[in-house]
Amino acid sequence: MHEPARKCQESAREAVRESVQEPQESAREPVRADASVPPEAAAGEAEAAATRRDAGAAESSRANRGWWDRNADEYQIEHGTFLGDDRFVWCPEGLDEVEAELLGPTEELEGKDVLEIGAGAAQCSRWLAAQGARPVALDLSHRQLQHALRIGVSFPLVEADAGALPFADGSFDLACSAYGALPFVADPVRVLTEVRRVLRPGGRFVFSVTHPVRWAFPDEPGPEGLSVASSYFDRTPYVEQDEAGRAVYVEHHRTLGDRVRDVVAAGLRLVDVAEPEWPAWNSSEWGGWSPLRGKLIPGTAIFVCVRD
Fold first, then answer.
1. Longest C-alpha distance within the chain, in Å?
2. Would you say 23 and 153 are in contact if contact means Cβ atoms under 8 Å apart?
3. Sign of CA dihedral 300, 61, 26, 21
4. CB-based burial of residue 35 (10 Å sphere; 0-12 exposed, 13-18 middle, 19+ buried)?
5. CB 114 within 8 A of CB 134
6. Which of 148, 193, 290, 291 has the most crowded Cβ, counting Cβ within 10 A?
7. Cα separation of 34 and 62, whole Å?
8. Where is 271: in which H helix or E strand?
9. What is the pTM of this model?
């Protein structure tokens, strides 16, 4: 079964949890915009069954909040070295904002208000702060933001749904999202519209997602991942569900054309789409991303948008 953008692979969860350092209590606990939904405990879960079925906005949000809370420790252990504590990496290919400058020239970031959506442990925000920007790191997962506290932060952390950003109109000069939120939401136009609302005129939003063509291929890093297995045009969500049929992980497919139309429908102007090639230096495998596949088919699409 296809698992397009899952950021961590299955492993011995108990062994992983025993080795993770517990985040320390801090006066800078994430500000929670939705206090009615308690953070999920980082407990084990029964093996989920993978399927393709409809999943709405509420179900997707609830499932993915729980999944990331339960798997944040494992994710940070498995991918923390690759991501670094204060790097801005757009994708498993390893494209770094230092070289890409998709948000604009690095020297012009100083003094800019920047919203990072789906920040995880806030590695990108930490890099932005080092450039003199004023970032705010937002994530749906309480546990991911606790890892941001563990590493250390000098900027606000906000726990909220990307479809209901708890900020006033025109609060930010820039917004960014490296594989955050948009692959996991049922209504991407709602998220994009919210981003446009909180951007100032002339503001830029850059987001990366799994390249849509990957949905036609099995999510395998080896040769078995190079043969088309399903229709690229099938937008049915990928869902993992428990024995009672409750979704515990949801991911939504949009074709390349869908993504473009979503940006336009939200009132943003698309100025570039980057498709990073796999670099020779990167020998890592990350789920279905690998040097073998990366040299043949795109793994990531990065959309650069502007609010006029």
1. 52
2. no
3. negative
4. exposed
5. yes
6. 148
7. 12
8. strand 269-274
9. 0.88
Helix, strand and coil content of the chain, in percent to the nearest 5, comes to 30, 20, 50
Q: Are 238 and 2 in contact (CB under 8 A)?
A: yes
pLDDT mean by block of 10 residues, the chain; 308 residues: 37 31 47 49 64 98 97 96 97 98 98 98 98 98 98 98 98 98 98 98 98 96 96 98 97 98 98 98 95 97 98
Task: Please name the helix (run of DSSP H) or strand (run of DSSP E) that holds residue 135, with its range, or none.
Answer: strand 134-139
Residue 186's Cβ-count burial label (10 Å; 0-12, 13-18, 19+) is middle
Beta strands in 156-237, from DSSP E residues, in sequence order: 157-159, 172-178, 199-210
Neighbours of 11 (CB within 10 A): 11
Residue where the block lists tokens 């399903």: 230
Q: Which of 143, 160, 169, 136 is nearest to 37 (CA)?
A: 160
Strand pairing class (238-241; 199-210): unpaired
Buried b (16+ CB within 10 A) or exposed e, 62-101: bbbbbbbbbbbbbbbbbbbeebeebbbbbbbbbbebeebe
Residue 270 C-beta-side C-alpha neighbours within 13 Å: 19
